[in-house]
Design a protein that fits this description.
The structure holds two protein chains of two kinds.
Chain A (H helix, E strand, L loop, with lengths): L13 H6 L12 H13 L4 E8 L16 H4 L4 E3 L6 E3 L3 H4 L5 E7 L8 H8 L20 H9 L8 E4 L18 E2 L22 H14 L6 H4 L2 H18 L1 H7 L6 H7 L3 H15 L3 E7 L7 H26 L6 E6 L3 E2 L11 E2 L3 E6 L8 E2 L16 H12 L6 E3 L5 E3 L12
Parallel strand pairs in A: 1-7, 1-8, 4-12, 5-6, 5-7
Antiparallel strand pairs in A: 2-3, 4-11, 8-11, 9-10, 13-14
Helix pairs in contact in A: 10-12, 11-12, 12-13
Chain B lengths: L3 E2 L8 E6 L11 E7 L2 E5 L4 E3 L1 E6 L4 E3 L5 E4 L5 E3 L4 E4 L3 E9 L2 E10 L9 H11 L26 H10 L15 H6 L16 H11 L12 E7 L2 E3 L5 E3 L1 E6 L4 E3 L5 E4 L5 E3 L4 E4 L4 E9 L2 E9 L16 H13 L9 H13 L5 H9 L5 H10 L2 H14 L4 H21 L4 H9 L3 E2 L8 H4 L3 H13 L18 H11 L2 E6 L2 E6 L5 E2 L6 E2 L17 H9 L6 H14 L19 H13 L4 H10 L26 E2 L2 H12 L25 H5 L19 H9 L1 H7 L5 H8 L3 H13 L5 H12 L4 H13 L2 H4 E2 L1
Parallel strand pairs in B: 4-12, 14-22
Antiparallel strand pairs in B: 1-4, 2-3, 3-6, 5-10, 6-7, 8-11, 9-10, 11-12, 13-16, 15-20, 16-17, 18-21, 19-20, 21-22, 23-25, 24-25, 26-27, 28-29
Helix pairs in contact in B: 1-4, 5-17, 6-8, 7-24, 8-18, 9-10, 11-15, 13-14, 16-17, 16-18, 24-25, 24-26, 25-26
The chains are: A alpha/beta, B alpha+beta.
Chain lengths: 442, 812
């Protein structure tokens, strides 16, 4: 991979690029005030982006990031540890390529929380808040509290010609904005970047229209819409917002930078192959392209890691090869493009899996102890934080949980974890629910 | 207790008449009467303080606040100290005169101080809880949230002093408070920043409040007992004011205690504005008006009691003259009276084409066809607008459209009810609307439904909403506009509702259960069910909101509730329904949000809301009669074009507001104008989106444009905010393009039928915009079509630009 594959124009530094030709932005909802605020912010701050690789169903970290070779056979599992490019840190044997990138990220092995149900645990990890009474996990979205991406979008606003918060390839049920409003809702790709004809819906006019007709339509619209720039529209916030969005939509459609960000086909084959030609790999590649173009938070959701049956076969044959290629390429690629320092990558599921192997050679849900992998964004790489006990059943020292992860993430993103938002009933809710900074990584 | 005792009857006005040269804000008037209230203050006890309010009365009769403009001087600062903001602090026993100077005039407040040497025995419930409130310790973002904070949990807003006392004084081996060395108590060390505290520094160690907490701890942590005086009410001063743009107004909060004392608690009260774009309030109770004309309410809360200050903020400048119309309706009279007070001129009346499109979309959620538009625009009868409304009210689309609205609120849900149950529930709603069932009867049928669900469709409500608590809060919110769910766990922070009120409502629904029977699932009201207050454990008998507890009784008492709820005397039912319908047609409720009626969120035009509610009650809760009255008003028929006086007004109906079309209405509009139906999963061909009774039917467009998922009874679930993705969909979606270019679509047909370019352009304008083009618009259209090599493509492009216009996607 070379600087060419970046898709940057003529080697301009990223910061400058973001200021050029990036008048557009979109999202499933961005209000005018937040847009204006964002424009203001863009002038004086760039900042760290957040990239969450969410392994839905629950990654078995006892088989990947925290092996227990000395535990009894009914805990240990089938996989052996291998060494990494950081002396003393071992990972599972089915992550050989990722093992060579371990200097770029760290492992929190004393991570855990109190919930081992899908839905609740998802909400806990993706928002930093444990759900309370009345939580309905089947709702889409089910957010009682805003997701991390929504908080980032609301706090920092969009940057450049791209939305602030994007979900690839779809939105997790807990990825919504709750009471932060549509301005903070994610832009959802709703298409598989690994599909041969992948494209983002509605981003470009139908191919049946030639450029002459497109131009003619634009001219017509400027004349036909008498409410455009009218006193009515100006005196009405919703109309003014729609009007502003239309300008942004046009800018986005004609912005080569934004278009390029979504055009995964422009990526050299070698790069696409390195990430792996599967949904997780291409989603991670898309995430890198988006972060590069200025997206502040990308959530890659990959499913299904819920290995109740045949845990080892599933991991070995399918899931870990996906993860190995996607993550190893992601960390290497980010570093190569100088993006690692400004991109915080968090890799986690909603929980880990039971250390004790069940009758179906599977592992069940386990919230009390698992490993979260995270790197970039100014964090130290190649560090192991804390440890789990001998059977990985609970943290053995210095336990961290979703609140601490959230506090640390917002600290790195430059968002005050104590900032408050208000629910529709007027309850103030902080960005992060207290939580300690994970100082070992700072 | 903390205390400034007022002499009985001392709330008299002292007026000093003088002439002053006004500064800044006061330039409008040279003549001012300075008025200080009260003239005499008694401060009792060393903690006593008192907020003086200084008014100036202008020659034009207006009263303005001079509290922050005045200079204060105490004749004896060792007796009474006075802050630059006009707050008096007791120092030592004695008497002092406070000289107040503003605008060259002087007034004097006589002040006596007593009891400063008397020891004060602080108690937890009366003295400490208000401080925990004031410093936000027990707010729902901190220790007041359900799970507490860092192992320390307080009841939110201090509604449960006994539990808070246990948490503070006993839990965690008592380390939070340490009477032997009070300053070393964790409570004070954390709150003052001497120990790491996630909530930051909350209390200044040199403050009076810190001292009070320290002395309470050192004194042995007295809880207090039933004999201690308690707060029975609070009173804000002033209650009402006219404020200029950018003007300020200091508020004072007096608490009345059960022993008859009145105490200034301004520094301990919470304040909140109900419209921040009109006026804000800070924590000292200083209200600051913005630069938008309108009516705003500021709430003060203290120890579960609330009171209200209301301000009218008129537009500055020469008085506008509002033309009086002889035959104007009660609606027009009330709105005109308000506009006159605010010095706003209404926009001009809307033309026929605008009225046509507006009244179609508002009444039946459907665009007029080109043919309907032609017919109406050619109708020269005087009463053609009224006739049009009558036509619309009997169309089947009326029932479809209003059934959709009610199905959202009453949560018709196929997943919860199954196909059959959801459909019969929906049919009951739709048929009720089609038959013009009085809304009170509609509510009664829902409230008292019982028996086999197959025979009693409204009974399905109790299957979608399963818990008695949710039933009570949903029905309160839908039919009364009163949100009581806060009171499930604690006293409502902005209203009078306590947990007893909440559980009194819940108890009506406690006996309900669903059982299998020979006739399928049955809804029955079993006898044995009692509702307990979660804190006291006492049994709460069913009683409607604000009504006395009924005699203890068993069985199904929902009939009592239904009778109370739908009675014309019910203070909320008719007002809530009137407000919802008004908001639907005018784009904004008299109370906003529409389902949040409470004393602290007053209507922007209470006389109008009362009149609309009265109209409903007088007409046997006839929805169509109310719609007739609203649509016939001049207010509804105003243009959306602002004039120089009302461009900032969105609150007072001085112009029509642009309303976004709802997802279903917009999709139907696209289908109708392009002449290509949408096919929805699970329903027969030809169904319009407005007719979809299942909000779960998967559809990208409907989801993108904010269709609600019907998980709550809140109108806010329908997302009406715009997004770039919506704009992109209209610009680029192949689905829209298909409709424009469809072989059996309208565009192709119109091109074939209209060889004349002018006629073709007229037809397109009538179809998409329900109006004829202006001459220059027609000219532009003709040139576009005539100059094109492909007429059909040219027409498609013109239609595309219309679909993408604000004029299409908004109701204006």
């Amino acid at each position: 991979m070379s600087a060419r594959s970046l898709g940057y124009c003529d080697g301009l530094p990223r910061r400058d690029l973001l200021r050029i030709g990036c008048a557009g932005l979109f999202g499933t909802g961005v209000t005018l005030p937040s847009m204006l605020r964002a424009d203001e912010q863009r002038r004086d701050r760039d900042g760290v982006s957040l990239l969450i690789v969410y392994l839905k169903g629950g990654l078995s970290t006892i088989d990947t990031f925290d092996l227990k070779p000395d535990a009894p056979a009914e805990f240990r599992g089938e996989f052996n540890p291998i060494s990494t490019n950081v002396p003393g840190i071992l990972v599972g044997e089915h992550l050989p390529r990722l093992a060579r990138q371990l200097d770029k990220f760290s492992l929190i092995r004393s991570f855990g929380h109190r919930n081992s149900n899908h839905g609740e645990a998802d909400h806990y990890m993706l928002t930093g808040y444990h759900p309370v009474a009345g939580f309905n996990p089947t709702m889409r979205p089910n957010n009682q509290r805003p997701s991390h991406g929504a908080i980032v979008a609301r706090s920092l606003g969009p940057r450049g010609g791209v939305p602030a918060y994007v979900c690839v390839p779809r939105m997790h049920e807990s990825g919504g904005a709750a009471y932060l409003g549509p301005a903070a809702e994610p832009f959802v790709i709703e298409a598989d970047p690994a599909a041969p004809g992948f494209e983002v819906p509605d981003l470009l006019p139908p191919l049946t229209l030639d450029s002459r007709r497109l131009g003619s339509r634009r001219d017509l619209l400027a004349h036909v819409d008498r409410y455009q720039r009218s006193a009515e529209a100006e005196a009405n916030q919703r109309a003014a917002t729609t009007e502003a969005f239309r300008r942004r939509a046009f800018a986005l459609m004609t912005s080569p930078e934004a278009k390029r960000a979504f055009d995964i086909h422009a990526e050299p084959d070698a790069v696409r192959d390195a990430y792996g030609r599967h949904t997780l790999g291409q989603s991670c590649l898309m995430a890198r392209r988006l972060v590069q173009a200025g997206v502040r938070c990308v959530t890659v959701e990959h499913t299904n890691w819920d290995t109740h049956d045949n845990n080892f076969a599933m991991l070995k044959k399918e899931l870990l090869p996906y993860l190995d290629s996607a993550l190893s390429a992601l960390f290497a690629d980010l570093a190569e493009h100088g993006l690692l320092e400004t991109t915080l990558v968090v890799v986690t599921g909603e929980f880990g899996r039971t250390p004790r192997i069940n009758r179906n050679a599977g592992r069940d849900h386990w919230g009390p102890s698992f490993t979260v992998a995270l790197g970039g964004g100014g964090l130290r790489g190649g560090v192991v934080v804390g440890r789990s006990d001998a059977r990985a059943e609970k943290p053995a020292d210095n336990p961290y949980g979703p609140e601490d992860l959230a506090a640390t993430m917002y600290h790195l993103l430059g968002i005050d974890p104590d900032d408050e938002f208000h629910t529709p009933e007027g309850r103030p809710v902080k960005v992060a629910n207290q939580g300690r900074l994970i100082r070992e990584l700072l | 207790m903390l205390l400034a005792r007022l002499n009985a009857g001392c709330l008299t006005w002292l007026a000093v008449v003088a002439i002053a040269n006004a500064s800044n804000d006061l330039e409008q008037s040279d003549a001012l009467r300075l008025a200080v209230e009260p003239s005499q203050v008694t401060l009792s006890g060393r903690d006593a303080r008192f907020n003086v309010l200084v008014d100036g009365q202008r020659a034009d009769g207006r009263t303005i606040d001079l509290t922050r403009e005045s200079r204060y001087r105490s004749s004896s600062p060792t007796v009474v100290e006075v802050s630059p903001e006009g707050v008096l602090f007791a120092r030592n026993d004695g008497a002092a005169d406070i000289e107040i100077t503003a605008c060259g005039q002087t007034a004097v407040v006589h002040c006596t101080v007593s009891g400063t040497g008397r020891p004060i025995q602080y108690n937890f419930a009366g003295d400490i809880v208000p401080l925990l409130n004031r410093f936000g310790c027990n707010s729902s973002g901190c220790h007041g949230k359900a799970e507490g904070q860092n192992g320390f949990k307080l009841s939110v807003f201090g509604f449960d002093p006994a539990a808070d006392y246990r948490a503070l004084a006993m839990e965690d081996r008592g380390r939070r408070v340490f009477p032997a060395a009070a300053d070393q108590s964790l409570l004070l060390r954390k709150a003052s920043g001497r120990a790491p505290h996630g909530g930051g520094i909350r209390i200044d160690p040199l403050s009076r409040e810190y001292r009070i907490i320290r002395e309470w701890i050192a004194d042995g942590l007295r809880f207090g007992d039933a004999a201690d005086p308690y707060v029975i009410g609070i009173a804000l001063a002033p209650r009402e004011r006219l404020l200029d743009f950018r003007a300020t107004q200091q508020l004072r909060v007096l608490a009345r205690y059960s022993d008859g004392r009145e105490v200034d608690v301004t520094s301990l009260a919470r304040f909140q504005s109900n419209n921040e774009s009109l006026a804000t309030v800070d924590e000292s109770g200083l209200v600051t008006a913005a630069e938008t004309p309108g009516q705003v309410a500021v709430m003060a809360g203290f120890m579960g009691q609330v009171d209200l200050f209301q301000a009218l903020i008129p537009r500055p400048g020469p008085r506008v003259k509002i033309e009086q119309v002889v035959e104007s309706s009660f609606i027009d009279r009330h709105v005109a009276a308000k506009l006159e007070k605010l010095n706003l001129a209404p926009s001009s009346p809307a033309d026929d084409a605008t009225f046509l499109r507006r009244v179609y979309l508002d009444t039946i959620g459907t665009l007029p066809t080109a043919e309907e538009a032609r017919r109406f625009l050619a109708d020269t009868r005087d009463d053609h607008r009224q006739r049009l409304v009558e036509e619309l009210l009997v169309r089947p689309e009326f029932a479809d459209f209003w059934a959709l609205k009610w199905s959202d609120l009453l949560r018709v849900d196929r997943i919860a009810l199954g196909h059959k149950g959801a459909y019969s529930y929906y049919r009951w709603i739709r048929e009720s609307l089609a038959a013009n069932k009085p809304l009170d009867r509609f509510a009664r049928e829902l409230l008292t439904a019982e028996g086999p669900l197959a025979e009693s469709p409204p009974g399905n409500f109790y299957k979608v909403v399963q818990k008695p608590g949710d039933m009570a809060s949903t029905l309160s919110q839908v039919f009364l506009g009163v949100r009581i769910s806060c009171a499930e766990c604690h006293h409502h922070p902005y209203d009078r509702w306590s947990q007893s009120d909440y559980y009194g409502m819940v108890d009506f629904f406690a006996p309900l259960s669903r059982r299998p029977s020979a006739h399928g699932e049955m809804l029955i009201a079993a006898a044995a069910a009692e509702t307990k207050h979660p804190r006291t454990g006492e049994i709460v008998e069913a009683h409607p909101l604000g009504a006395p507890t009924t005699e203890p009784s068993t069985g199904d008492r929902r009939g009592t509730l239904a009778a109370w709820l739908t009675s014309p005397e019910n203070p909320w039912f008719a007002r809530n329904l009137a407000n919802r319908v008004w908001a639907h047609f005018l784009g904004r409720g008299l109370v906003e949000p529409v389902d949040d009626m409470r004393a602290t969120n007053p209507p922007s035009n209470p006389e109008l809301l009362d009149a609309l509610a009265q109209h409903l009650a007088d007409h046997q809760f006839d929805l169509r009669a109310l719609i007739r009255a609203i649509t016939a008003s001049r207010v509804y028929q105003l243009s959306s074009r602002p004039n120089e006086t009302n461009e900032r007004d969105e609150q007072n109906y001085s112009r029509a507001l642009l309303k976004p079309l709802s997802a279903e209405v917009l999709l139907d509009a696209v289908c109708q104008t392009t002449g290509v139906d949408e096919k929805f999963a699970g329903v027969p061909e030809g169904y319009r989106a407005v007719q979809l009774w299942d909000s779960g039917v998967s559809h990208y467009f409907l989801k993108l444009f904010g269709r609600p998922v019907r998980q709550t009874p809140c109108e806010c679930e329908r997302n009406t905010e715009a997004s770039v993705a919506q704009v992109l969909h209209f610009l680029n979606s192949p689905r829209i393009e298909e409709k424009l270019a469809h072989e059996s679509g309208r565009i192709k047909r119109l091109v074939a039928q209209n060889a004349d370019a002018s006629e073709l352009v007229d037809e397109l304008y009538l179809t998409f915009f329900s109006r004829f083009p202006e001459p220059e618009e027609r000219q532009l259209g003709i040139e576009h079509v005539v100059g094109a090599s492909d007429r059909r493509q040219a027409a498609e492009d013109l239609a595309w630009s219309m679909l993408n216009s604000l004029e299409f996607v908004f109701n204006h």
